[in-house]
Amino acid sequence: MIAALNRLAQALCLCIGFATFTHANDLGTPQGEIILTVTGQIEGSNAREAAVFDLDMLRALDATQITTDTNWTEGVHTFTGVRLDILLDHIKANGNLISAVAINDYSVEIPVSDAEEGGPIIAYEMDGQPMSRRDKGPLWVIYPFASSSKFRSEVIYSRSIWQLDRMEIRQ
Q1: Residue 8 CB contacts under 8 Å (≥ 6 apart), including other chains
Q2: In angstroms, rounded to a whole number, what is the distance separating the alpha carbons of residues 116 and 103?
Q3: Which of 69, 108, 125, 140 could hold 162 in an S-S bridge, CB 3.0 to 4.6 Å?
């Protein structure tokens, strides 16, 4: 309950930021529910010291698909989302580490060096359908596990955070 109230307070502060702060690097304004907030070492923002995205804003970035099996689902699935490197470029991230946090406050650290072509995506669809919270959504960091043995390790599996809702870019 406290985590939910904290997220509500954060969303209200961000909404106030939309109305009162002009940004030099406009990323657009979310029209729907904010599902991802990125803070820290970024130059691009659309809220006070943050880049916030609704689902349509993420879909507007170049979509990438990864077809793979996972340790948490049965069979092979096709995940659609934005490549992590594209998102980081979009917000002009300047750090070396991503602190990724889920809706339930579970957190992992992902090195920015993972964000490369052929690397992870922030998935917002599985098999062409939006992912509900029950299905590990609305956002899930997916690596192309089936494409290379370098993605099939406990370290990489631990970085595959689901129910992602915020990231902080750090040095």
Answers
A1: none
A2: 25
A3: 140
Which two structure tokens, joined as six digits, stand for 156? 């990489």
For residue range 115-136, list pLDDT tens digits in order: 999 999 999 999 999 999 999 9
* Measured distance CA(42)–CA(107) in Å, rounded: 19
The pTM of the whole model exceeds 0.90: no
The pLDDT value recorded for residue 25 is: 52
What SS3 string covers the chain?
Answer: CHHHHHHHHHHHHHHHHHHHCCCCCCCCCCCCCEEEEEEECECCCCECCEEEEEHHHHHHCCEEEEEEECCCCCCEEEEEEEEHHHHHHHCCECCCEEEEEECCCCEEEEEHHHCCCCCCEEEEEECCEECCHHHCCCCEEECCHHHCHHHCCHHHHHHCCECEEEEEEEC
Angle at 62 between CA 86 and CA 144, to 5 degrees: 70
Task: Give the angle subtended at the CA of 67 by the CAs of 116 and 71, to the nearest 5°.
Answer: 90
